[in-house]
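Hey,
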Amino acid sequence: MEPKEQSVAVFGEALVDDFSTRRVVGGAPFNLARHLAGFGLPVTMITRIGDDDNGALVRNEFTRFEMSQSGLQTGAGEATGSVHVEVGADGSHRYTIVPDQAYDHIDGSAALTALQAAQPSIFCFGTLAQRDPASRAALHALLEQTDAVRFLDLNLRAGHVDEAIVFDSLQQADIVKVNEEELQQLFKWYCHTCPDTVNMECISVDTECRAMMHNFSLSALVVTIGARGALYLSADGAHLADHGTGTSECFVDAVGAGDAFDAVFLLGRLRGWTMERTLARANAFAAASCGYAGAVPQEVGSYNHWLGQWSEASGGA
């Protein structure tokens, strides 16, 4: 019997960003799942939507990316997750995350059935979908039953995620990805000092990160720092930085850039790339994602361009 292809399970919110004039499907976990599916990986997205117009938009994205719907739940009378987005005159965005949405009520039993069928090698989760006890309990049930590597994208959202949820999530994780602001918040909560992160490679940043990794038994910590690239620290002593390619020459927005980075980081892990190669490719893909509107490209076929480019550059790896 041939070994089963490595797969990924993603738990969390699938929602719709409502700009009043247009609606765009999003949610950090769903962005990640769609990217992974675009790269051809088997993905099980565990989420919950309502039987409404926004839910239909989400379901259409499952179809467009040819994703399995085994983990997609539908709650009668529940509203599909939504975020109201107001765009200011200066181009700034103000987000209002709507409470009590379908993804707050993920059913643990149905989720566990989907997880057991998928048998993923990597299990991804975040924090927003833990704001309600129902979905938080479902997540804990899955974490208790899987032996997959646990990848946490912290993705803090003020007013929706408290320190207790963060603490518990860090205890459950193997690999944690944060951005620079989130790392500074973790320093304030869990470290003796809060070093300046302008120079991410300085000794004080490394020291505090490693202390935190030790306290939470993390195998790795990944920090994205926008156009300055990313930093990777591992429990075995690795300290690698890639300073990226800057932002896209035709910058549109940075929505979902972190999710794009995550997808290639996980792809590299599954494909056995070196960490140097993984960081460089993840940064390049994240930068390119800033060149189109929204979190994922409109042309699903564009993923083949990246796969082909990487294959040629590394002799098929």
